[in-house]
Here is the input.
Amino acid sequence: MSAIHVRGLTVRYRGACAPAVDGMDLTVERGEVFGLLGPSGAGKSTVHRVLTRRIRRFGGTVDVLGAPVGRGRDRDFFERIGVAFELPARLPALTAREDLSAFAALHRGPTEDPGELLELLDLAEAADRSTAGFSKGMLVRLNLARALVNRPELLLADEPTGGLDPVRADRVREVLRDRARQGATVFVTTHDMRTAESVCDRIALVVDGRVRAVDTPRRLRLAHRSPGVVVEFRRNGRLERRELPLDGLAEPLGIPGARVETVHSREATLDDVFARVTGRRMGREP
Ligand code: ADP
Here is the structure.
């Protein structure tokens, strides 16, 4: 049985001329990290709202963890899922630790230790501070900690790396992958290519409320690549650039008979340069 099974999902907001989600089909298998990738306004958050029962009026059928989401107020549902919102609410009267403990207390089943979760998300130092002074990035990570506190079998995260610096975004990506490794299903909506690429087993490309393609990031890239490499080289002091076909590269690379699928050069990223020059990663919160 799939974790999420969506057929013909259509959502139209009151007063809108076009549907926000327009006949969408999705199947997410248990244990996979599945990403909905698309630009702003594509309908990703609307799908997230349907899957988390915040929108009840929709067309089509939507099953989550084996049951239709449209009906009833099944408390067990919220025991089994974890929800990370795009725009997290803040409870300024509480410290981060109190906030997480309050969320943990809402659940009947086993919960994570708040201190350990805060540590995992790089918030240990801020654990006993009021969340009133938290930056957007800190709130996004606290929000993910809230979603993980009940050890959900299905995590639904809307833009989990939104507003994070590169190091914190990487940490969140690792946490998401770890959850899947531990057996959870992870459903992510994002407009961040890097999150889609490095976290997701499969992604659906969404535009205007419709799925245009679904596959692994690698297969999508290979299917739509321009089959060549661009080489930049210096000759007689001048920088030149040439496009070479991938076919025929195997021999000079010393792997005759192979079919070269991709070639990557390993120049440093700006992030690497920053770390080497300054001795620090770009991970400091203001
Ligand atoms: P995404 O998450 O991909 O940015 P959304 O699901 O938020 O996209 O939005 C999809 C479309 O629905 C957009 O055109 C947006 O303007 C519209 N929309 C989103 N929320 C509402 C709402 N509460 N009322 C009316 N229209 C909305």
